[in-house]
């Protein structure tokens, strides 16, 4: 357990930041999962819309520093590749 005031404050900050980051990471994962399911389902128009939302969520997570830029780029690339094979 932390003994100094600064260490206790750092613990509070870390908890707050972890919850903030968790929101963006979870949102991005959910969007990607929904897009994948629609691609597998064969629903073309809905899949395109879902992929756009997933790409936006990944970009937002990367811009916040929640995930690395290259990680977001890799996930977007894989998702768009799946969409292209659907067509």
Care to give the gist of this entry?
This protein is mainly α. Helix content is 87%, strand content 0%.
Explain what the structure shows.
By secondary structure, the protein is mostly helical. The chain has a single domain (5-86), classed as Ribosomal protein S20 (Methane Monooxygenase Hydroxylase, Chain G, domain 1, Up-down Bundle). The protein is 87% helix and 0% strand. The protein has three helices and no strands. It has helices spanning 5-41, 44-64, 69-86. Helix 1 (5-41) packs antiparallel against helix 2, helix 1 (5-41) runs parallel beside helix 3 (69-86) and helix 2 (44-64) packs antiparallel against helix 3. The protein starts with a helix and ends with a helix.
How big is the Rg?
Answer: 17 Å
- Whole-number mean pLDDT: 95
N- to C-terminal distance? 56 Å
Rough outline: elongated
Can you count the beta strands?
0
Query: Which structural class do the helices and strands define?
Result: mainly alpha
CATH homologous superfamily (4th level) name? Ribosomal protein S20
Roughly how much helix do the residues carry, as a percent range? over 70%
Helix count equals 3
Number of domains: 1
CATH class: Mainly Alpha
Which helices and strands, and how do they pair?
Elements: H1 5-41, H2 44-64, H3 69-86
Annotation keywords:
87 residues; 3 helices; elongated
